[in-house]
Every structure is written in structure tokens, then in C-alpha cells.
Design brief:
Layout (H helix, E strand, L loop, with lengths): L21 E5 L31 H13 L4 E5 L9 H9 L6 E6 L8 H7 L3 E5 L5 H7 L6 H14 L5 E6 L8 H8 L5 E6 L17 H11 L2 E4 L9 E5 L5 E5 L12 E4 L4 E3 L8 E2 L1 H5 L2 H13 L5 H4 L12 H4 L2
Parallel strand pairs: 1-2, 1-10, 2-3, 3-4, 4-5, 5-6, 6-9
Antiparallel strand pairs: 7-8, 8-9, 10-11, 11-12
Helix pairs in contact: 1-9, 2-3, 3-5
Bound molecules: iron/sulfur cluster (SF4).
Length: about 350
């Protein structure tokens, strides 16, 4: 039985009745990789590059999180760009872990810098990790990271995270037809028998510069069937309402895999996620065209900010993935690396 989300009347719900439960915080918009589906080399808009002064400071991020927590947010995910590029990140983790109401503190990383930071992040109070890994073939991994990534660094990062106490690491893998779909069984096989969970993500039309075509999408159902043919799977119940990935366990008990199906099976109906960009803008959808600047409101303090945020959430009606088919092809969308997936 999935626990229904707490229906505290004072907490805001959007125009589709969705509460505010998750906050994804981009702590930095830059990245040391150039994955073509997210930050293609030389194609990303200049205005997404911020200077240090434009990025929220830790005091501002903490004030924002305290305000969001008052509106029902209990789950935080730190993202980027590549969040491990943000200096003194364990200090921020420790501060956010101490905010009343925050029960779940996670981070998504490309794993390249994880080996050197996993222990400090764990000690600071980070609870969960998601590592991106689009291939286990070293040459393909390098090309899928825009010629910048080294597979061994990421595998060393996962090993260091295990040693630091991260029990079940989520491993995100974006599958593109004709590119890395042959890596699905390799990645599933690599993590079978471990507590780590590969999640195969349908290639999405995020932003405006990744050249997305629907033909490049491999529907999750097809991937599931491929894995099932090799290692029989059975469906598992979601961990909580609104969980992004559908869960499937191996019938032989050797672990589980997940599928994120934003294209073939949209999940906007239960989307209770907000996003905060590194320069303090609120985005209420991954595919939003623009954000709501919050920095000035953060400066007015927690009470005023909470009131302002509640007002913004109450008028939210986003459900892009459900409307994708009717959306104009040239619809402007924020770049994913700017708001962190
Ligand atoms: S498309 Fe937007 S509204 Fe739908 S699930 Fe994704 S972020 Fe939420």
C-alpha cells in the first residue's frame, strides 16, 4: 500500500491538486563533461554561464530550503551542472541536513570527482547518491561525455561511495537508439547481485540544443522486455507516490532495475517537484520556458519567501510531458544543466 502524501490543508497545492514535496537545487550550472543530450559542446546558450556572484550563496540556499520546507518539501536533491564542482559542498550538505522537515537529502553526479569527495559528503549528512553512467564500454563512455569522461574515474567513484557507506546507489543511464542501447544488458549485468539500482531513462527533448528526435527514443517497455528475456523481471510497488522511476525486481532476487519513461508513459499527474537554479530562479517543470527570480525574495527572509513561493505554486499547471505531442517544435525550454534534471 503506497502511503498517500500528507494532506496538510495549510500546505499549498497547485492547480492540478499536486503538493510541493521535492526540491531539486542546482548548486552550479557548469560541468566538466559535455554530454550531447544535455550540454552539447559549443551549442549551449551563453546566457546560461553564470559568474560566481550570480550564484546563490550557502546562506541564501539555506534560507530558501527553510522556506520550501515550511510548504511541505521534505526531499532535497542537489544537482548541477556537476554539483561536485561547487566548492565546500560538504558544508552546504551539513547545513541542509539540519533544516527541520528535510528527511531525505540526495545528490546526482556524473561521478568523475566522487572518489575524492564521497567520504566528506557522507560525513556531512548526505543520505543518497545517484551516479550517471551511460556506457560500460570505455570508448563509448568517453564519446557520450563529449570526449571528456574517463569510465575508470566513475567506477572508482562508485567504489569510494560504497566504502563511505552509501548502500544503494542509483545509476542513471540515458538510452538513445542506435547509440548506446547495446549497453543496457552490460549495465544491468554489471550491477546484478549488488544493492545498486540501474535506472534506464528515455531520451528526452530537454532544452533546445540537444537535437532531440522521437526516433532516438527507446521506449522503456522495449528495454524492459530485453532485460526480461535475459533475466526475468517482476514489477515492484513504488517506494512512494510520485516516484519517477518504475521499479522491477529480478525474479531470482539479484536486485532491481528502474525505468524513467517521460516520453512513452508521462508521470506529470503526480509531479510534486520544484527546481531552484544556481542563480536563484524557481522552475516548476523540467521543460519550463522561464523561471521566477527568487533572490530578492530570499533577501526578505524566510516568512516572506514562503508566502511568495506558496503563491507561485498555487498557480502552477505544468504537465509538459503529457502535452508533448501538441507542443510546438520550437517551444523555448530551459536547458537541463541549468536546473539539474
Ligand atoms: S514534464 Fe514537468 S510536470 Fe511533467 S513530470 Fe516532468 S517536470 Fe513534472
Amino acid at each position: 500500500m503506497i502511503d498517500p502524501l500528507p494532506a496538510t490543508p495549510a500546505l499549498p497545492r497547485d492547480l492540478l491538486g499536486r503538493p510541493l514535496h521535492d526540491l531539486r537545487i542546482s548548486v552550479i550550472e557548469t560541468c566538466n563533461y559535455r554530454c550531447p543530450y544535455c550540454m552539447p559542446e559549443g551549442l549551449t546558450p551563453d546566457e546560461t554561464a553564470l559568474d560566481r556572484a550570480s550564484r546563490l550563496g550557502f546562506d541564501e540556499i539555506e534560507t530558501a530550503v527553510r522556506a520550501f520546507a515550511r510548504l511541505g518539501v521534505s526531499k532535497l536533491r542537489l544537482t548541477g551542472g556537476e554539483p561536485l564542482l561547487r566548492r565546500h559542498l560538504p558544508d552546504l550538505v551539513a547545513r541542509l541536513a539540519a533544516v527541520p522537515g528535510i528527511e531525505d537529502l540526495a545528490l546526482t553526479t556524473n561521478g568523475s570527482l566522487l572518489a575524492g569527495q564521497a567520504h566528506a559528503l557522507r560525513q556531512a549528512g548526505l543520505q543518497r547518491l545517484t551516479v550517471s553512467l551511460d556506457a560500460l564500454d570505455p570508448a563509448m563512455f568517453r564519446s557520450l561525455s563529449g570526449g571528456r569522461g574517463n569510465l575508470d574515474d566513475v567506477l572508482a567513484g562508485i567504489a569510494a561511495a560504497e566504502a563511505a557507506g552509501f548502500r544503494s546507489i542509483k545509476v542513471n543511464c540515458v538510452i538513445q537508439r542506435g547509440l548506446n542501447e547495446d549497453q543496457v544488458l552490460a549495465i544491468a549485468g554489471h550491477f546484478r547481485g549488488t544493492p545498486h539500482v540501474p535506472r534506464f531513462i528515455e531520451y528526452m527533448d530537454v532544452g533546445n540544443c540537444n537535437g532531440w528526435r522521437r526516433e532516438g527514443v527507446v521506449p522503456s517497455a522495449e528495454l524492459r522486455d530485453r532485460i526480461h528475456a535475459r533475466w526475468p523481471l517482476r514489477s515492484l510497488t513504488p517506494t512512494y507516490r510520485g516516484e519517477v522511476a518504475t521499479r522491477h525486481g529480478y525474479e531470482d532476487g539479484a536486485g532491481e532495475v528502474g525505468f524513467v519513461s517521460s516520453v512513452s508513459d508521462p508521470f506529470c499527474g503526480d509531479c510534486h517537484r520544484a527546481r531552484l537554479s544556481a542563480d536563484g530562479q524557481l522552475f516548476t517543470c523540467l521543460f519550463a520556458a522561464r523561471g521566477q527570480p527568487l533572490r530578492e525574495h530570499i533577501g526578505h527572509g524566510e516568512d516572506a519567501l514562503a508566502e511568495h513561493l506558496a503563491g507561485l505554486w498555487r498557480v502552477r499547471a505544468d504537465r509538459y510531458s503529457e502535452q508533448r505531442a501538441s507542443a510546438p517544435a520550437d517551444r523555448k525550454k530551459i536547458e537541463m544543466f541549468y536546473i539539474g534534471g
